Amino acid sequence: MSLSKLIFCFRKDESETLSENVEHYDLVPLDMQLGFDLDELLKASAFVLGKSGIGIVYKVVLEDGLTLAVRRLGEGGSQRFKEFQTEVEAIGKIRHPNIVTLKAYYWSVDEKLLIYEFVSNGNLAAAIHGKAGVTSYTPLIWSDRVSIMKGIARGLAYLHEFSPKKYIHGDLKPNNILLGENMEPHISDFGLGRLANIAGASPTLQSNIVVSEKQSQLQQQQQQQNNAPSEVLMVNATTPSWSPYQAPESVKVLKPSQKWDVYSFGVILLEMISGRSSLVQVGTTEMDLVRWVQLCIEDKKPLVDILDPFLARESDKEEEIIAVLKIALACAQTNPERRPSMRSISDHLDRLVA
Asked: What does the pLDDT look like over 241-282, one tens digit per residue?
């Protein structure tokens, strides 16, 4: 099925076709080497990769074989084009091998599309835990895990230190870390929450982001009263409820911090070391993975009790595994001031042998 027909299937107002809405608009390239136009994109074969409160994602294959990921956002926000344009073009300038590239976008009154490079090997969650409905899979060897950790750290360090606005991701988790053909990681969904809010997302997501924006405004007012400098940062803000990847202080602290991403990265490292999900079943209750690992250490349990059983076979890597475990726990400290920066974490990981 073509992309235009698929989009039509999911339109709320079935009295209009996509062609009626796009004739006065065009695809806006963010990659100067873009080799296709809107007509080619809409005629391309496509199928749904996933749906969420933040839109539908399609895998699209052009006639020449180029594969893309296209995210369709909400149908609102018709009066906010300039705001959307400013945000999307800033995100489009981000170029890093470990961050998914936004190649183009499309805006009309009723359609907003984001066109990304397609990353072919699934996501990190599936690589750690296996795909849903699939009973068997091959676990990642330690050297592959370390390579993925290093790539994520480099991508985050770039966002934090070297991007134009020293951005924050704000919703980092294994599901939005995509893996390439050679298992190299690509951080996805960066800046998506803000764009979805402008374009018109689900009511739940919108109300969550509105609350977040109001909190930010209140924080700015407080800073002005205190004559404190404020830093412009972009937050993803796509998670409507608490997640074990969120830093503890994010529930009550108004101003977003890069240390939130550091905490999320620490949880991801613990997942990759232990092979466990971010919530661990302990008897009849659930405990977040950070606390579970801390209790194992406090109880002086052997390393093998924490490790993914598959990694326990790689006894010659124990020293490296312990080193990464220490980094993970440093990242996941309750006090954000004690967490290291992503740049120092990346440098530390790069010094590992694997």
From this structure: 679 999 999 988 778 899 999 999 999 999 999 999 999 998
Structure confidence at residue 264 (pLDDT): 98
Domains 1-7+22-118 and 119-200+245-353 share a fold: no
Mean pLDDT of 2-10: 54
Catalytic-role residue among 26, 31, 37, 171: 171
Q: Are 333 and 291 in contact (CB under 8 A)?
A: no
Known catalytic residue at 13: no
Residue 12, token pair as written in the block: 């709320």
State which fold the 119-200+245-353 domain adopts.
Answer: Transferase(Phosphotransferase); domain 1 (1.10.510)
Which CATH number does 1-7+22-118 carry? 3.30.200.20
pLDDT, tens only, 304-337: 999 999 999 998 999 999 999 999 999 999 999 9
Torsion of CA 49, 118, 83, 232, to 10 degrees: 110
Buried b (16+ CB within 10 A) or exposed e, 87-108: bbebbbebebebbbbbbbbbbb
| Residue-by-residue DSSP string for 295-344 | HHHHTT--HHHHS-TTGGG-GGGHHHHHHHHHHHHHHT-SSGGGSPPHHH
- pTM for the complete prediction? 0.83
Structural domain boundaries in the chain: 1-7+22-118, 119-200+245-353
